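Need a sequence for this fold. Nothing fancy.
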């Protein structure tokens, strides 16, 4: 029997990824949509979670694809209704909210799945395998793209809780926190904030190891690159191993030689895993990428830069 799922928040990511992947997965049935503005063809749609609940429509789970700032209350509302919850990344604006959501799901005995889509490909898995037991002394993250291409008309990303460039940047951090054999920590950061925005358009971050050993660990993120995307992660270890993940983590080179080029079907894999979690009645919540990004804001030095005109649509 297929799990009946509702998509809450019918925006770009829902239309581009969640809805098509749900429709292709036989273990799910797209039962409803919830949005103040959007609709889904041939699917019952409601303006609020409360309206959906009042409809008495049978629902097993929801996918929360709204901006992160409103998700905690929505997740609690869904969990109170007895529904399991999948949340798009970034899961919440703060670590505290994510931990509260996790505790509430546990209390309600429902599955909570915090997704990190960039982790889902074979090249990332292979990198994690090769780094196991190693001592990392070098990390370089370059994550640069055009905000008007990838986030057109998304005003919320420029507002408090919207993350700015650290919204795509958290994709890189989600890969880093998966593949590294030991956790790293923010040492210092500089975040560039346009004068007409509350969130950064660029960031330079230095990390440190937890044991105090010398290491060159850094990340550079920028939303002003218009000549294509740079989504790369380089890792070096004390015994000479050099890994290079490119194209968003889908291509892995080891010591200069390409060893794996993964086909990207991240959201297909997310829903395959969600089905397994629902069957096992088990949650999956990893706060480590959000913690590192939060620490960037905590330790980062803000620098005001010139106003940026972003696309209205």
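Here you go.
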């Amino acid at each position: 029997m297929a799990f009946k799922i509702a998509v809450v928040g019918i925006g770009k990511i829902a239309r581009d990824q969640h809805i098509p992947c749900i429709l292709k997965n036989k273990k799910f049935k797209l039962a409803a949509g919830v949005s103040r503005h959007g609709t889904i063809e041939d699917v019952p749609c409601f303006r609020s979670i409360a309206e959906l609940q009042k409809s008495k429509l049978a629902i097993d789970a929801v996918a929360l694809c709204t901006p992160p700032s409103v998700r905690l209350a929505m997740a609690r509302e869904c969990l109170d209704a007895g529904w399991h919850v999948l949340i798009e990344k970034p899961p919440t604006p703060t670590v505290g909210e994510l931990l509260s959501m996790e505790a509430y799901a546990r209390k309600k005995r429902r599955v909570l799945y915090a997704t990190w889509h960039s982790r889902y490909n074979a090249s990332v898995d292979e990198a994690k395998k090769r780094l196991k037991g190693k001592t990392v002394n070098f990390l370089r993250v370059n994550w640069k793209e055009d905000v008007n291409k990838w986030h057109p008309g998304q005003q919320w990303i420029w507002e408090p809780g919207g993350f700015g460039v650290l919204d795509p940047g958290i994709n890189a951090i989600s890969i880093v926190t998966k593949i590294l054999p030991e956790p790293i920590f923010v040492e210092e950061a500089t975040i560039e904030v346009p004068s007409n925005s509350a969130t950064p358009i660029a960031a330079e971050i230095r990390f440190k190891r937890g044991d105090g050993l010398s290491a060159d660990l850094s990340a550079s993120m920028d939303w002003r690159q218009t000549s294509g995307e740079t989504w790369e992660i380089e890792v070096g270890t004390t015994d000479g191993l050099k890994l290079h993940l490119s194209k968003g983590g889908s291509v892995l080179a080891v010591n200069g030689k390409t060893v794996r080029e993964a086909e990207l079907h991240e959201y297909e894999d997310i829903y395959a895993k969600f089905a397994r979690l629902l069957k096992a009645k088990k949650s999956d919540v990893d706060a480590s990428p959000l913690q590192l990004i939060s620490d960037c804001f905590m330790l980062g030095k803000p620098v005001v830069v010139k106003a940026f005109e972003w696309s209205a649509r």
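For context: The CA atoms of residues 21 and 198 lie 33 Å apart.
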